[in-house]
Design a protein that fits this description.
The protein is mostly beta strands. It is built from no helices and eight strands. Strands 1-2-3-4-5-6-7-8 form an eight-stranded antiparallel barrel. The protein is globular and about 40 Å long.
């Protein structure tokens, strides 16, 4: 099998939001935060698994909407990109750069 990529760390999106990912082997937990009036506020959270350079995270947001994110780690390990697919049909493109 391919080596397990290291997703752990803090990743910042283009809009200033960020996600904190904790990884234990192939299991990950993720929490995303947005800046609300200067206060970091948790916007969604979830857990999932890593296969090679891909992660699959089942999440729920602050409004109770759920879905699955599919994210790929770049070759150099410094960025992640993918898509969040909500169960209600909405899709959101994801991109973030490693900060730690």
């Amino acid at each position: 099998p391919p080596p397990t990529a290291q997703f752990a760390g803090t990743w910042r999106g283009l809009d200033g939001s960020y996600v904190v990912i904790r990884q234990n082997g192939t299991i990950i937990a993720a929490e995303s935060f947005v800046n609300v009036f200067g206060v970091a506020t948790r916007a969604s959270w979830g857990q999932g698994t890593v296969t090679g350079r891909q992660a699959f995270v089942d999440f729920m947001d602050a409004y109770g909407n759920s879905g699955r994110s599919e994210v790929t780690l770049s070759d150099d390990g410094q960025s992640i990109a993918g898509v969040a697919r909500y169960n209600n049909g909405i899709q959101q493109n994801l991109f973030a750069s490693r900060t730690t």
